[in-house]
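User: Here's a chain of 289 residues. Predict its fold as tokens.
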Amino acid sequence: MHTPAVSIMIPVRPASPGLGRALASLAIQRVADWEAVVVLDGPCVVNRALVRRFADPRVQLVEFDRQRGRGAARAAALERCRAPWIGFLDADDWYTPTKLATQLGCVDEDSSLEVVTTGMFIVDAGNELRGVRGLEGQGRAGGTIGALPFAPSLVRAERARRAGFDARLRSSEDRAFLAAAVPGAWWRSVADPLYVYDEYGQQDALRSLRSAVTTTRLALREHGPGRAAAVTAARQALRAGGTVAAHAAGLGEWLVARRSDAPSPEQVARFLVARHLLDDELRARGLAS
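Assistant: Prediction complete.
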């Protein structure tokens, strides 16, 4: 059986509306040698039918009989990923057409790489461009995860499997994974925004509160026992508390916007071209809304 170059895991909450767009963005990749593992975290007739209608043999479908959370969904996907590189794609997000080609091109240039990440276009729930985010560089990761983002990254399968996903976590499973997978890894980051992230549509006070609790626990676990860990956890808890309070005050969009930069005219043009290609693919497959 052919082994693809990259496996993409796609966890899907029940009734999540963006899955067709995520799958279509894989179909227009300049690299066709991929597989996707779609995990429906709880029964969903609409998304089950959508995957079957998409009718691509590169897409596997796993469906839980009840909602178990993102950690369990990612753990189930990882078990089925066969490629030497593991990628991530949320059902609310999508890839620009050159994402996988750019990252695998970095690997061709430097076979010692273990993590390859990219910048992100930040969009709202209407898929309108609101900002960009990204860093350029490479190096050996230290003892903490630093600024490397989860969503746009490709991680070598050996590292991904050693780190694993905690099936008990219903949020912040990505941070827990990075904390285990990244330290000591040789990484490269491409600043170009190649992952399209609907951060605006994924923010609310309840999710922020859940994430705050989990992230504070992870900070304690990441730094070990002692005063330094306690100080780090306290800072994280205060920061998280401020985030929850801001959401409660209706400042959720401001929280997202302040973490992003304004896109350049060139970036706006590239985003519009990518979105046009994606829309064409959706229409061709009869999936346009």
